[in-house]
Write a structure and sequence with these properties.
Blueprint: E1 15-24, E2 27-36, E3 39-47, E4 55-58, H1 62-74, H2 93-98
Antiparallel strand pairs: 1-2, 2-3, 3-4
Length: about 100
């Protein structure tokens, strides 16, 4: 008995979830990103060792969310390969204000 592959496998839909622990204004946060073929969603969480993936309560603070996202995105740090341990990204206050924050 054999199985013959007539056409190579191909992805029809792909979803990736990843997280990174960051420090911002002397507070630790986890950023959590869900990406699929339709786009991505970025959220900020309080670390919690008792929760799966160390993702505690989500932080619903639009200003904090926008500041962190802007600093990372303006520095090209929006994928896991850029968020390596010890990496630091920053924007000065003028750059944040130019982005409406």
């Amino acid at each position: 008995m054999k199985v013959k592959v007539v056409k190579s496998a191909e992805y029809t839909y792909q979803k990736v979830m990843w997280k990174a622990k960051i420090e911002y204004k002397d507070t630790l946060y986890n950023i959590f990103v869900e990406e699929d073929d339709n786009g991505s969603q970025f959220s900020v969480h309080i670390p919690d060792d008792e929760k799966p993936w160390n993702l505690g309560e989500e932080v619903f603070d639009d200003e904090l969310h926008d500041e962190i996202y802007t600093i990372l995105s303006e520095n090209g740090a929006t994928c896991p390969s850029e968020l390596t341990e010890g990496a630091e990204y920053e924007l000065d206050e003028d750059d944040l204000q130019l982005n409406g924050i």
